[in-house]
Write a structure and sequence with these properties.
There is one protein chain. With 282 residues, the protein is of the alpha+beta class. 24% of the residues lie in helices and 26% in strands. The strands form six sheets. Strands 1-2-16-5-19-3 form a six-stranded mixed sheet. Strands 4-17-7-15 form a four-stranded antiparallel sheet. A three-stranded antiparallel sheet has the order 11-8-14, with no helix packed on it. It is globular.
């Protein structure tokens, strides 16, 4: 991938190739995994090919004796080893996404039953800890709700640039979005993070964004462009995906922008998803 952000001919060639190959149906993006501890050559190749082309793959497998062990080993076979040691990551290197009674953890929406707006994972991380991929695997679904939606970041950039090249350019400014520092009892747990929304990263397009406007600051000159981005996300397109990830299903992706609907849980059998965040791309 050449510099599609600043070179028009490079962008046009990349755009045409991307749209020609982009998936608009989910079925071809599903990979059946016989044994996540030992991927076959065909399984691994299909996941990698889908992630190279569409930046995501949906996987499904059989019930596992130890889900955490199985998912970590599956991810490692795809080259995902450098994981993000953020708050609430368990010793198994995964975050267990489930409603919690822990008041500190409950400040973060993923650990509640509330809806989550469009975002990329780790949007608050500094550049040296950029989240390039994540996996999300369902061990136990909610009683109802909890549907996931997602869109390839590269497709989102194309949709935005087709409507307004000026807006697309504004969102590459290095001061576009600032996440204030997160602190507790006077101690800074995460420093302030300022950067672009769209950027080039190791010759690939990278997106850093959240619709959660609380504690998020946008530069004045980019606010109209952000509003257009939100409009495109809300309008939908043939490339938007919606799917209720069921038990023994998961998504592996190059940190595509995604959201979650609210859900109703059964206290006797709460919703549980395992999430891994990584610094490598698939």
């Amino acid at each position: 991938m050449a510099n599609v952000l600043t070179n028009l001919s490079d962008y046009q060639f990349w755009r045409d190739e991307k749209l020609a190959k982009a998936a608009s149906k989910l079925d071809p993006c599903i990979v059946d995994i016989h044994n996540p501890l030992t991927l076959t050559t065909a399984e691994k190749s299909k996941i990698q090919s889908l992630c190279q082309q569409n930046n995501f793959a949906l996987i499904q497998t059989q019930t596992q004796a130890d889900y955490s062990h199985a998912i970590v080993h599956l991810n490692q076979q795809l080259g995902l080893k450098a994981y993000d040691r953020h708050l609430f990551v368990n010793n198994d290197t995964l975050a267990h996404i489930t409603p919690t009674s822990n008041p500190q953890q409950g400040e973060f929406i993923p650990y509640t039953n509330k809806a989550i707006g469009w975002h990329t994972d780790g949007y608050y991380n500094p550049p040296e800890q950029r989240i390039r991929s994540f996996s999300l695997f369902c061990v136990n679904p909610a009683s109802s709700g909890g549907e996931n939606s997602w869109l390839d970041n590269e497709i989102l950039y194309i949709l935005l640039r087709q409507q307004s090249p000026e807006a697309a350019a504004l969102l590459t400014r290095t001061n576009a979005m600032t996440i204030p520092a997160h602190s507790e009892k006077g101690k800074i747990l995460r420093p302030e993070s300022t950067g672009a929304i769209f950027m080039q990263d190791n010759k690939r397009l990278y997106l850093r964004y959240t619709q959660r406007k609380k504690n998020v600051q946008f530069a004045d000159e980019v606010r109209a462009a952000v509003a257009l981005l939100d409009e495109i996300l809300a309008q939908g397109s043939p490339y938007h995906f919606q799917h209720l990830i069921t038990q023994n299903q998961g998504i592996i992706c190059n940190n595509v922008i995604h959201k979650r609907s609210g859900f109703v849980d059964d206290e006797r059998s709460p919703r549980l998803l395992l999430r891994g965040r990584y610094f490598e791309r698939i």
